[in-house]
Design goal:
about 375 residues, alpha+beta, six-stranded mixed beta sheet, five-stranded antiparallel beta sheet, 6 helices, about 20% helix
């Protein structure tokens, strides 16, 4: 600013001197009156905006800052105070606040009735291959798991999971299916893994035999690797099956001992000769009713090796005949004149010969034990 005023005075000074000098040839110059020079400050250039950004000189920030520093700090009212520790909420303002719903008496009684099962102490038992066995139905089983560890819940062999298991906290717990064992009767398993420690939830698994309700707890380090169950009801069912089978066997034995009735006693024929054999394979009685032949064996034959019955066919050769055994009784659905009970093979073979009284040799005589022996012994037939 000073440089601008100085340059203005330097330009105006010669002009003033020229005006005050008298023209040549005139008399003594008269002294002109003094001229007053006033300093007129030039207007300050207005600040311009650069690139569309206003200059700070257009706004009195200094005065505003000073006024704010001198003014007292107002205290915020409780209604306008901002709480920085409270997270923003997405709940609408008109949403009703959560309230504890009062329970009716029946609901309270139901809770009291379920508490013993929920809190009942169920002592687990050790099982094979590191399993921990809980008794199914005795109380609420608790499975303890840990992050980065696998817990396996094993079901009964052959039991099939009918639907996807339901878990209370599906975000921080993961469950997956698995199987092991034979393909015809596999063992279904549930693999359980928590994502962090300090969790407490429950799990429901439904199968084709029962429903499992389990509590899940996650700990930092402690966990159960394998959990299985023992089933008291299955033991009772196995006893029922065993008793039913035993009763069926007794009934079959009774049917075997009972001889089918004959049409009339007049048709019974008792004239049979039995030779050879020993006391354990020689029949005690042989009789027929004209249609069937009944051979009664000595007591104890049913628990020993049973001999095989063969008869001499029409061509004079031995052949196996169809018969059934009921207890100590052989029942043959036909009549025969020569037969034998054979036990063993070769030279150590034992036989008991049976000859009906109606049998006659080629000479017309009754057959003896030697004749039957010769029919069943090829070596004797060669001697003839």
């Amino acid at each position: 600013m000073k440089a601008f005023m100085t340059s203005t005075l330097l330009i105006a000074a010669p002009m003033l001197i020229a005006q005050s000098a008298p023209p040549a040839g005139q008399g003594k110059a008269q002294t002109p009156p003094p001229v007053e020079v006033k300093r007129v400050p030039s207007p300050a250039p207005k600040p311009t905006a650069k690139d569309g950004v206003p200059s700070p000189e257009q706004y009195p920030f200094t005065k505003l800052i000073g006024a704010l520093e001198d003014a007292p700090n107002p205290k915020p009212s409780p209604s306008t105070e901002l709480k920085l520790d409270a997270p923003p909420s997405d709940v609408p303002k008109d949403w009703p606040a959560a309230k504890d719903v009062p329970l009716p008496e029946t609901a309270k009684e139901a809770l009291n009735a379920s508490q013993p099962w929920m809190t009942e102490k169920q002592a687990p038992a050790p099982g094979k291959d590191g399993r921990v066995l809980y008794t199914f139905g005795a109380g609420l089983p608790t499975v303890v798991c840990a992050p980065l560890r696998v817990c396996v819940l094993e079901l009964e062999a052959g039991e099939k999971v009918t639907g996807e298991p339901h878990i209370g906290d599906s975000v921080r717990w993961t469950i997956a299916p698995a199987t092991s064992g034979r393909t015809d009767q596999p063992t279904s398993m549930i693999v359980i893994k928590p994502k962090q420690a300090g969790l407490d939830t429950n799990l429901l698994v439904t199968t084709d035999r029962r429903a499992y309700y389990i509590r899940l707890i996650s700990k930092p380090e402690e966990y159960l690797a394998r959990i299985a169950f023992s089933y008291p009801d299955d033991g009772a069912a196995q006893w029922k099956v065993h008793l039913a089978r035993q009763e069926q066997r007794q009934k079959e034995n009774a049917d075997a001992v009972r001889v089918e009735p004959v049409e009339t006693i007049d048709n019974l024929y008792f004239d049979y000769r039995v030779t050879g054999g020993d006391d354990y394979m020689r029949p005690t009685r042989v009789v027929d009713d004209g249609k069937k032949t009944f051979i009664q064996m000595p007591t104890g034959t049913a628990v020993r090796e049973a001999p095989v019955l063969v008869v001499v066919g029409p061509e004079g050769k031995p052949e196996v005949v169809n018969y059934r055994v009921k207890g100590d009784l052989y029942i043959v659905d036909r009549l025969f004149e020569r037969g034998a009970l054979l036990l063993g093979v070769g030279k150590k073979q034992r036989r008991a010969e049976i000859v009906r009284g109606t049998y006659r040799t080629s000479k017309g005589n009754k057959a003896s034990g030697k004749d039957v022996y010769r029919d069943f012994n090829p070596d004797e037939q060669k001697k003839d």
